[in-house]
Amino acid sequence: MNKIELLAPAGNLEKAKIAILYGADAVYIGGKQFSLRSRASNFSIDEIAELVKFANAHNSHVHVTVNMLPHESDLDGIEEYLITLDSIGVHAIIVASPSIMMLAKKLGCKFEVHVSTQHSSTNSSAARFWKEKGMDRVVLARECQMDDIRSICEENILPIEVFIHGGMCISFSGRCVLSNHMTLRDANRGGCAQSCRWKYHLMDGQTELSDPTNLFSMSSKDLQAVDYIENFIHMGVASLKIEGRMKSAYYLATVVSSYRMLIDYIYEHGHADVEIIERVKKEIAKAENRPTGPGFYNGLPKHKIQLYQDHDETVTQEYVAIVQDYDKESQMATLQVKNHFMPNQDLEIFGPHILSTIVHVGDVYDSEENVLEVCNKPMQIVHTKWSGPIEVDAMIRKIR
Q: Which residue numbers delimit the Peptidase family U32 C-terminal domain (predicted)?
């Protein structure tokens, strides 16, 4: 049995490399064309090529989203685009439009074609249909419950991919037209305005039902599936997908490394005990995050899984620096400042090969060797004596 894939999102080249370094078996990205998440930075052809080389060097894969539902005018250049992606060596494309799926197969592209979650595949009959069409993997709808996924996997029709972390749609995924109706921004062509997360006056005729000081919204808590990873492994799920191409590099490093730790533990020990589950949950909670819940995995979500008032993403300032270099002889670390922190205090470091460890950081110096009283200039390069685990690309954060 192949080891289950951990698939991470990335909105730009830096984030993609961080996701791979922190344990992703594959990353999925969007190009400048034919992709949803138009507000992500997205990748030029040259950047995709660079990422493929980086991924290959780290035994990882690159999946490219070609997942918009195109109108007639959106298809200009699609054949040339697919041929270019194939020549670059991407491992897979994630597609919503059957016309693009069939075109990729007709062109003889070597990459796999994965059916996007936009198709809301929720049963084995759908999986069988896509196999008959020559597809290579199905990304199940977020609305699938555990029994649905188990039944589909038991049929062993196609490799199955499921979401384990990140944003959930308050509507049936991929079917919402609120953004189109209210802003003329098409959610299925990359322009979702996330109208569900706006603040509304909820009215019954002329009577307002909402609190005027805390208006009504209708978004969902983010998905967090730590409790279900062992089940997915035993079911034979092929890939575990994290959502969040708009998220920060720190968020990706934290979430990817946490799930990586859990997956590796399960394969080593055969199961996940309470201690590892709680440790992983605590690690994930250190990322900037919205409230989380189990999505549909416990059945139809009740009101406690939805967010009707407070719903904004919590942006923390716990991530304070990233390690750029380390001199073993002098034991001096070179850091790039990300957020405000004070020298001479305990901080926490974690990295691609470092579990979260508390270390004491002493005096910090700028590039001219001046002692700093405070580190409060983002992107500033600073130096400090370091005693404890350290590696390039490790991240340093405050202790909650």
A: 316-397
Task: State how far the Cα of 207 lies from the Cα of 221, in Å rounded to an integer.
Answer: 28
List pLDDT tens digits, range 182-221. Answer: 887 766 655 677 787 788 888 999 999 888 888 888 888 8
The pTM assigned to this predicted structure is: 0.90
Residue 120: φ, ψ to 5°: 55, 45
Angle between helix 274-285 and 249-269 (nearest 10): 170
Q: Which residue has the tokens 């716990």?
A: 318
Both tokens of 243, joined, read 């959502």
- Mean of the per-residue pLDDT values for the chain? 91
> In angstroms, rounded to a whole number, what is the distance separating the alpha carbons of residues 193 and 176?
11
Residue type at 50 in one-letter notation: E
The secondary structure of 187-235 as a DSSP string is GGGT----GGGS-B--EETTEE-SBTTB-B--EEPEEE-GGGHHHHHHH
> In sequence order, what are the beta bridge partners of 336?
322, 381
